[in-house]
Amino acid sequence: MSERTIGRVAVIGTGVIGASWVSNFLAQGLTVTATDPADGAEERLRAAVAAHWPALTEIGLAATADPGKLTFFASPEEAAEGADLVQENGPERVDMKRTLFAALDEAAPEHAILATSTSTIMVSEFQDACARHPERVILAHPFNPPHLIPLVEVGGGAATAPEVVARAMDFYRAIGKHPIHLKREARGHVSNRLQIALWREAFHIVQSGIASVEDVDAAIAHGPGLRWALLGPFLNIHLSGGPGGIRGLLEGPLGKATTDMWAELGNPTFDAAMVDALADGVAEELASRDVDAMMEARNRLLIELVRDKAAAKALP
């Protein structure tokens, strides 16, 4: 693959994640082609871009940012033609990804990177469907919503060329993302595995009657979640360890207490009763709240937090 500047991005699938990616790419001044087979997809996409644009304007637009640089096509092949990078956001089904990436590999220029936003599927499960250039298929998993959250998890499959991963890392970094490199494949990647580990114990706490749905939410939102928004788990442990740092904490009494609690973590039963209990708990938690206002406040604070973090050079 030859080195090329990435100026034209094709977005395949324009649901919640895809529309957010489109908005992000346009805000960075890129030319975007898009496609989605659903009825009314183009109208919904353009409405989503318009809805996201005020937040992106507040974050800061590139000098060449323009919603008019979006073109919608009827097929993935048409959208991928001439693209420097393809960002796929299709359903979480291996069979569909195999079919789609085979078509994208045929249609996209030789230099183009083929990236998937998949949350759970590993690149090695479908990249061999690309007869021409399986080495250019990568993982580029964002955290929702991509136009506000900087994280992108970048990695390859068994056939991916290391230079393609490096080029993708440079691209996402250049458009204001915070890419991390997965050294090997794992189902769910990094962020989802960590998130699901937390969900598992949250479900157990509710199912075993330790605390309510609302109080579990409060325990994170008003406790460790505030620190986790600034530093990751290891640095938070280190700062909690005093002069001895993470070594002193883990080698002391809290180290043993941690392993003791690991042995007691729950294995909740994921059944209809559990789903009902969680859904009822969330409904009760939201009964006195305006959900639209809550989401607006969340997004506003996310914008401020991401902006302030970027300006705080002492933070990693």
Automatic annotation (TrEMBL):
<dbReference type="InterPro" id="IPR013328">
    <property type="entry name" value="6PGD_dom2"/>
</dbReference>
<dbReference type="InterPro" id="IPR006176">
    <property type="entry name" value="3-OHacyl-CoA_DH_NAD-bd"/>
</dbReference>
<dbReference type="GO" id="GO:0070403">
    <property type="term" value="F:NAD+ binding"/>
</dbReference>
<dbReference type="InterPro" id="IPR006108">
    <property type="entry name" value="3HC_DH_C"/>
</dbReference>
<keyword id="KW-0560">Oxidoreductase</keyword>
<feature type="domain" description="3-hydroxyacyl-CoA dehydrogenase NAD binding">
    <location>
        <begin position="9"/>
        <end position="183"/>
    </location>
</feature>
<feature type="domain" description="3-hydroxyacyl-CoA dehydrogenase C-terminal">
    <location>
        <begin position="188"/>
        <end position="247"/>
    </location>
</feature>
<dbReference type="Pfam" id="PF00725">
    <property type="entry name" value="3HCDH"/>
</dbReference>
<dbReference type="GO" id="GO:0016616">
    <property type="term" value="F:oxidoreductase activity, acting on the CH-OH group of donors, NAD or NADP as acceptor"/>
</dbReference>
<dbReference type="GO" id="GO:0006631">
    <property type="term" value="P:fatty acid metabolic process"/>
</dbReference>
<dbReference type="InterPro" id="IPR008927">
    <property type="entry name" value="6-PGluconate_DH-like_C_sf"/>
</dbReference>
<dbReference type="Pfam" id="PF02737">
    <property type="entry name" value="3HCDH_N"/>
</dbReference>
<protein>
    <submittedName>
        <fullName>3-hydroxyacyl-CoA dehydrogenase</fullName>
    </submittedName>
</protein>
<dbReference type="InterPro" id="IPR036291">
    <property type="entry name" value="NAD(P)-bd_dom_sf"/>
</dbReference>
